[in-house]
Amino acid sequence: MSQVMVEHIVKTPGVCGGRACIAGHRIRVMDIVAWHERRGLSAEEIVYQFPGLTLAEVHAALAYYFDNRQEIEAEFLQDEQWADWLKANVPSKLREKLGA
């Protein structure tokens, strides 16, 4: 990782599952990617929504994603597979209450 990346992006065992996060926060790179790439928020809008973040941190997260796209996309896939497993194997208490 470049020095700028090291300053802004960390991977810490036991924090957010060891996934890449913004240093000093529990906001994962994949969270920034989801807000920017999948929901269409600009970097400035992300900072507005999360005032503890800096524009440099958001851009570092996006740069990390573009340099490590396969890693982050695999994390999205893993989360989607986990959600599918939960839907198939864990009954919904809300559906039980609604009688659905």
What features would you describe in this structure?
The chain has helices spanning 3-8, 29-38, 43-49, 55-67, 69-89, 93-98, and strands spanning 9-10, 21-22. The chain has 100 residues and is mostly helical. The protein has six helices and two strands. Helix 4 (55-67) packs across helix 5 (69-89).
Short description:
The protein has 100 residues and is mainly alpha-helical.
CATH-assigned homologous superfamily: Winged helix-like DNA-binding domain superfamily/Winged helix DNA-binding domain
Do you know the CATH architecture?
Orthogonal Bundle
Average pLDDT level:
89
Give Rg in angstroms. 16 Å
Low-confidence stretches: none
Q: Under the CATH scheme, which class? A: Mainly Alpha
Chart the SSEs and their pairings.
Blueprint: H1 3-8, E1 9-10, E2 21-22, H2 29-38, H3 43-49, H4 55-67, H5 69-89, H6 93-98
Antiparallel strand pairs: 1-2
